[in-house]
Amino acid sequence: MPAKPKLGQNFLVDSEAIQRIVASLGDLMGRTVVEIGPGRGAITGALASRAAHVLAVELDHELALHLRVQFPPDRVTVVEQDVLEFDFEKAHAEFTAASATGSERLLVVGNLPYGITSPILLKLAASHAALERAVLMVQREVADRVTAQPGSRDYGLLSVTVQMHGPTQQLFSLTPESFSPPPEVNSTVFRWRFSPRFAELGVEEASFLRFVRQCFAQKRKTLANNLRTASIPPATVAESLAEAGLTPLDRAETLSIENFAALWRCIETNGGFGTS
Questions:
Q1: Interval 54-77 mean pLDDT
Q2: 3-state SS of the chain: helix, strand, coil percent to 5?
Q3: Using CB atoms within 10 A of its CB, is residue 16 exposed (0-12), middle (13-18) or buried (19+)?
Q4: Structure pTM?
Q5: Taking 60 as the threshold, does the pLDDT of residue 8 lie above it?
Q6: Domains in the chain: how many in total?
Q7: What is the pLDDT of residue 102?
Q8: What is the CATH classification number for the domain harbouring 84?
């Protein structure tokens, strides 16, 4: 089946990489795995031989039909749907009710379409309660961003958002020759363990993530200027920065997650968010 460029289809054909991806998920015995964009089923087959069940979420109608013929329905359920519309929480609830092994959260694997990688990562973050870990293949530059540390060139809003939902780790990279058709970029596989830090750091999830977006609103601006633009009173900004051990000249890309949380708590205590 030919690839459809408009759907971002670059099928993985490297058999060694397929086995490494599946092995990186860990022990699959008795587990349910959601595969994002199974395509022709290369990774699906390796998953189906080890996991209790695979939920293959495929948008392409022709590929979905092919997958239904290729794999038995008792091992692989093909869901013909945009993954951005897929309900991970509902799937978790349904398979928990049908499972004899308890309420283990879902595992996720996928060769993500480059054009919608960030929305998919945000979708997974929002679905964290239903997920245990994910092994994902993305454009190398995206992997650099989601695993970046404070002060590095790649550190930004996506880094903080993803890492607030659990630790990330780059596993290995692949050249275009590992795919058919070959993409124009290199790819990296990374693992993401879902273990949100909001309660640990004493912040409210929605408000904190909105705050971090404000901090990174304009990268060239200082933290103080970005927060003033967000309608937080200058006096509150100055007071909160001092209480959090930061300076008005600090920029968002230099702050650790712990720094962001400390600053959020100070602004919250000083009533700054009530005016935003």
A1: 94
A2: 45, 20, 35
A3: exposed
A4: 0.90
A5: no
A6: 2
A7: 56
A8: 3.40.50.150
